Amino acid sequence: ATCGHGCKYGECMGPNKCKCFPGFTGKTCNQDLNECGLKPRPCEHRCMNTHGSYKCYCLNGYMLMPDGTCASSRTCAMVNCQYGCEEVKGQVQCLCPSGGLQLGPNGRTCIDIDECSTGKAVCSYNRRCVNTFGSFYCKCQLGYELKYTSGRYNCVDVNECVTNTHRCNLHAECLNTPGSFQCKCKQGYRGSGFDCA
């Protein structure tokens, strides 16, 4: 089976037919499926969509059970957690709905972990990390764009000289470089390449 357009988060099952991995949708499986918008809703109280998945959490005064339901809890109500709580060995602990969040100093509210600055996020070559609330994603470095080549998605150098996105002087030549470009004044002209006289 060949899929000319590729299957970003899925498998090619037939001529240009993708079978998406759970949590993804679209013709090329390149879109995140918002499970929180599905009917019936996957969570009893509150739902947080994540890349390729989702997390359930409960209203204050309720405890998240292993099956994703929310059980009323007097102890939870007393602790006053932002995203519900769980009981571990008789101790009540507040929960955060994502691994990219951590309990704040007060032990009740959740604060974002910047995976990009802590080094927890690992982005492949030519990609840079972008932090989001509770998570992160990898984006192509400046001067590169996401393209489907030889069976997978890669960050490919943008040729600014061909796309005409360079700022070279009218009397200069544009030279493409990985992730960028250079300008060189033509013969008989002098300058930086951006200014030629």
Automatic annotation (TrEMBL):
Q: Which PROSITE patterns match?
A: ASX_HYDROXYL, EGF_2, EGF_3, EGF_CA
Care to name a GO molecular-function term for this sequence?
Answer: calcium ion binding
- Protein name as catalogued: EGFL6 protein
Keywords on record: Calcium, Cell adhesion, Developmental protein, Differentiation, Disulfide bond, EGF-like domain, Extracellular matrix, Repeat, Secreted, Signal
SUPFAM superfamilies xrefs:
EGF/Laminin, Growth factor receptor domain
Source organism, top-level taxon: Eukaryota
Compartments annotated for it: namely:
Secreted, Extracellular space, Extracellular matrix
InterPro entries named in the record? EGF, EGF-like_Ca-bd_dom, EGF-type_Asp/Asn_hydroxyl_site, EGF_Ca-bd_CS, Growth_fac_rcpt_cys_sf, Nephronectin_domain, NOTCH1_EGF-like
Which GO biological process entries does UniProt record here?
A: cell adhesion; cell differentiation
Main localization is secreted
